[in-house]
Write a structure and sequence with these properties.
about 325 residues, Arc Repressor Mutant, subunit A, 2 domains, 9-stranded antiparallel beta sheet
Amino acid sequence: MTAGTVYSGSHWQRYATGNADEAHAYIRRAFFDVKVRFSGVGRDGAGLSTVSTGLADIGVTRLHYSARTQLQTAPDGDLNITHMMSGRFTIARDRDEYRLRPGDVALMLPDQPEDADFDDIDAFITRLPRTLLEEVAHARTGISGASLRFDSSRPISAALGRHWTQTVSHLTRSVLSDPALLTNPLIIGNTRHLLAATALAVFPNTAHDLALGAAGEVTPRALRRAVAYVDDHADQPITVDEIAAAAGVRPRALQLAFRRHRGTTPTRYVRQVRLERAHRDLQAADPATGVTVTLIARRWGFTHLGRFSTDYRAAYGCSPSHTLRT
């Protein structure tokens, strides 16, 4: 799939300007407030061009900016993660300087100002709302929103940096390229939480080092309430916090109870139930009516068809297409 195909469709908005002030105003609207210290526009002006879209409260932007610019960020708490395609980009705070190379990823710190110096950059920027990060971090570790802080613009490791770019690339090509998927609540919910969980895993933050106290014991009855809630709401977006609330326990306690008594996590159990529902739909469907494996997989929130087929074969011993045909 070519880049042009990925960014096609009316759900992608395009913007271009050669005026430096307009370019800076765009950066403030799309990402965060900035104090510009230097802007060395070329013969063709600022040379800003973007193509962008959104998934609920998440924004994604492919941006090219040819001007040499130095600025200081004034972040608002949301996360802006940059994947550098080409150009020169340096982020500095105090004495810590991070010089990105093509392929590198960086987090603009959401709660602290940083100095940025860039020239002729081509980058893919993902903006995640703070509330989403706090929700996912709380569900996974029990950390409060006020305690969640990011400590560095660098990923924890190069491998994790690559994991971020691979995750975003997959979602861009398999979800954002298809307007029909952008209205599917299961796919929207899965994608939002996957991006937030990946960001929490890739960049240093206080959730990594949180020393959790006793999570609390989960009774068999509470675990049954959690399972029943998932079974009854598998066709809707579900968060760990919502499952825990239905069970009447803390999210961290629920995580531990699922691991201890079911050998899985609440999130994986949700995926298992949806896989079972897809299996039933495949058994009941008549391919002569135009029903396809892709249609059923997406109905239950599975956007990566290769992974869906692998998981399906592991669970049922045959391919989804075989079940549909027979």
